[in-house]
């Protein structure tokens, strides 16, 4: 196994799923190596690759380490995310279409299949969304909520599909508005999905999620339409 590629893929996946939002600190190279039972060299190579891709940055000093970069962190990263959204806009549209078709059914299944422990996990994800005091925590809680619903179905094909489409949509989701009414709408819509799942009202769960992902798709389409006539080389202008 190519260990450094495995480590890079692992961190890249967590970032693109939103589980490691901008500003998140990664474990140290030593801690990562111990967790995976490998030497530090593959971890160092993986971190260098992720840094070259613009996904993380290395900071020196007392509070140094490796941190996830975000679209709002600096102009360079903002440019990179815009370029990625422009280059992959057709795939992003298809991924959002998939979400609109599949995630309502995922919520229906979750309402029918959840255990008490799984419902607690979903409740916890929603509470974290309510308690979020910064955009990074909000983004992570949003991702956890959707991924938890997928895992409740116990269907590996649905789980894989939701994970892959969220990774594909990552550059567009990272550029969506933060705070204010956008957060309020997300909280309200998640709350409706949660209530329906909790009460095992499958039709309501499906309708609530459909409304939620349709709004997300509209927001993403609006974003992509503003980028459609831009060339990647013009992204920073």
TrEMBL record:
CDD domains: WHTH_GntR (cd07377). It comes from the Bacteria. SMART domains: FCD, HTH_GNTR. Keywords: DNA-binding, Transcription, Transcription regulation. Signal peptide: none annotated. Pfam families: FCD, GntR. GO terms for molecular function: DNA binding; DNA-binding transcription factor activity. InterPro entries: GntR_C (IPR011711), TF_FadR/GntR_C (IPR008920), Tscrpt_reg_HTH_GntR (IPR000524), WH-like_DNA-bd_sf (IPR036388), WH_DNA-bd_sf (IPR036390). Residues 1-71 form the HTH gntR-type domain. The keyword Transcription applies. The keyword S-adenosyl-L-methionine does not apply. SUPFAM superfamilies: GntR ligand-binding domain-like (SSF48008), Winged helix' DNA-binding domain (SSF46785). This is HTH gntR-type domain-containing protein.
């Amino acid at each position: 196994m190519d260990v450094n590629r495995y480590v890079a893929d692992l961190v890249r996946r967590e970032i693109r799923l939103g589980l490691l939002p901008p500003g998140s600190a990664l474990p140290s190279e030593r801690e990562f190596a111990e967790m995976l039972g490998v030497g530090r060299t593959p971890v160092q190579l993986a971190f260098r690759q992720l840094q070259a891709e613009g996904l993380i940055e290395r900071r020196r000093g007392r509070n140094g380490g490796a941190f996830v970069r975000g679209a709002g962190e600096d102009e360079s990263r903002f440019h990179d995310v815009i370029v990625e959204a422009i280059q992959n806009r057709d795939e992003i549209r298809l991924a959002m279409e998939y979400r609109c078709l599949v995630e309502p059914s995922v919520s229906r299944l979750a309402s029918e299949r959840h255990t008490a422990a799984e419902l607690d996990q979903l409740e916890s994800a929603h509470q974290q969304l309510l308690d979020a005091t910064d955009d990074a925590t909000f983004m992570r809680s949003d991702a956890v909520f959707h991924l938890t619903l997928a895992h409740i179905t116990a269907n590996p094909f649905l789980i894989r599909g939701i994970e892959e489409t969220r990774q594909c949509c990552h550059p567009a989701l990272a550029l969506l508005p933060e705070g204010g009414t956008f957060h309020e709408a997300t909280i309200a819509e998640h709350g409706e999905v949660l209530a329906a799942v909790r009460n095992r009202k499958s039709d309501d769960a499906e309708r609530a999620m459909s409304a939620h992902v349709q709004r997300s798709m509209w927001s993403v389409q609006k974003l992509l339409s503003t980028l459609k006539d831009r060339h990647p080389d013009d992204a920073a202008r």
